[in-house]
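Subject: for your reference before the review

Hello V.,

The reviewers asked for a structural picture of the protein, and I figured it would be easier to keep everything in one thread rather than splitting it across files. Below is the amino acid sequence we used in the manuscript, unchanged from the supplementary table.
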Amino acid sequence: MAVRDRAYILIEIAAISALAWLYLVRMPMTPADFGDLAARIVAPLPSPVVDFTIAFLMWTVMMVAMMLPSASPMILTYSKIAGGRDNASFFWTWMFAAGYLAVWTAFSVAATIAQFLLIRASILTNALALVPVAGALVLIGAGIYQFTPWKTVCLRHCQSPAAFFLTRWRDGAAGALRMGIQHGVLCLGCCWMLMVLLFVAGVMNLVWVAAITVFVLLEKLLPYPRVVAATAGLALVVSGVIVFLNR
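And here is what came back from the structure prediction:
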C-alpha cells in the first residue's frame, strides 16, 4: 500500500474519532435530541427500549472515540503488510478495523446492561457514577488488574503489531476480519477494567473519558509498558483506598 493510501487511512481514523467525540460532546439524551423524525419513529416503542437504545449508542460511540485512536498503529501496520499482497488491501484494512470495533460493540452491549442493572440496584446514581463504596472497590480492582498476567500478555500483543501479524496472518477480507476480532479480544483483555473506571466518576464525565483515552494510548505507545501499567495500578489502588476511607 502506498504511503498516500496509509495517509488516507490515518486521516479517516482521525475523522471518525473526531465525529465520535462530537457526538459525545452533544450527547443526545432523548429521542427529541435526535430530531423530530427520530422522535416520531421511536414514539410507538416502549420507553425502556428507547432508553436502552440511546444508552447503547452512547457506549458504542464512546468506545469508538476512546479505542480507535489507540488501534491506529495496529491498523496502519496491517495496511502496510497487506499493501504488498493485493490491490484490495484498502478494503481489507477497514475489514480489520471493523472486526476490532465489533468486539468493542459487544462490550458496549454488556456495559449498557450493567448500567441499567446498577441503576436498578441503586449502586449507580442519576449522574451515572458509582456510589463511593462501589467506586472505591472498582478503583482497587482496576489497580490490581494492572499487575495480572492476563493484562501483561494482552498489553504485550497490543504493543507489538509486527509480532501479532507474524503469528496470526490470514489473507483476504475474511482473514482481515478474523484478525481484527482477535486483536479486539486482546485489546479488550488489556483495557476492559480501564473502561469500567468510566462508572467511577460518571459515564458522561468527558474529562474522565478523555483522561482514560489518553492513558490507554500512552500505555500502548510508551516504552517500558509494564512500568507504565504498574505505576497506574499502584495509583488506582491508593486512590481506591482513599475513596473508601473517606466515603
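For the response letter, the relevant points are probably these. The radius of gyration is 19 Å. Residues 7 and 76 are 9 Å apart (CA to CA).

Happy to draft the paragraph if you're swamped.

O.
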